[in-house]
């Protein structure tokens, strides 16, 4: 990918996709308003049939998993959905493994963290989720690496619980090298803590 091309992030979409979990991240990537580096957001699904999110929005995928190539992407985003707790999502986990093998980051929030755990992708990485018990139920072997934080980035994987969409965005932007820790702290100050003192720091660049 040449530097003059817009960078691309792929958002996995499927029925009952949790609308609130990817919003902050998608907006900051697409606009680049606080990073100066805009991304194109492309949706990827198992088929090109429309999916319906948890909030009732109908989304028409841009491409299928069979056409997804990590070499054409800078990030794969996996969000919550009812199918993760039913043991589903294997094709998306295969994609996540391919991305990580290619050195391309994966960001998973809420139920997607259980999928990543089932796939063994959290066994050797620091990570978090809704609760340690939630991941323990998957039978994974990474419990010793679970940490009590809102979002965690380690060895190319970002994880977060469903209550941490702002921190999920911040940790992912940090992993991608798009903002300094000071600016990311200000981002969380504005959008999570409603701290007016953080606003000028965020806008200062």
TrEMBL record:
Sequence ranges assigned to domain DJ-1/PfpI in this UniProt record: 11-172
Source taxon at top rank: Bacteria
Pfam families: DJ-1_PfpI
SUPFAM superfamilies per UniProt: Class I glutamine amidotransferase-like (SSF52317)
Key words of the record: Glutamine amidotransferase
Annotated protein name in UniProt: Glutamine amidotransferase
């Amino acid at each position: 990918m040449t530097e003059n091309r817009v960078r691309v992030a792929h958002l996995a979409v499927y029925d009952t996709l949790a609308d609130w979990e990817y919003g902050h991240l998608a907006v900051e990537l697409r606009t680049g308003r606080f990073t100066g580096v805009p991304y194109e957001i492309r949706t990827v699904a198992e088929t090109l049939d429309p999916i319906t999110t948890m909030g009732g929005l109908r989304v028409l995928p841009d491409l299928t998993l069979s056409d997804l190539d990590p070499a054409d992407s800078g990030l794969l985003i996996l969000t919550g959905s009812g199918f993760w707790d039913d043991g589903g999502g294997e094709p998306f986990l295969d994609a996540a493994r391919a991305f990580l093998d290619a050195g391309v980051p994966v960001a998973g929030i809420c139920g997607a963290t259980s999928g990543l755990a089932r796939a063994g992708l959290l066994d050797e990485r620091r990570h978090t989720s809704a609760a340690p018990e939630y991941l323990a139920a998957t039978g994974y072997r990474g419990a010793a690496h679970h940490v009590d934080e809102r979002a965690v980035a380690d060895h190319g994987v970002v994880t977060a619980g469903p209550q941490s969409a702002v921190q999920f965005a911040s940790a992912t932007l940090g992993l991608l090298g798009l903002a300094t820790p000071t600016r990311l702290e200000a981002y969380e100050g504005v959008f999570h803590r409603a701290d007016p003192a953080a606003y000028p720091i965020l806008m200062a660049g």
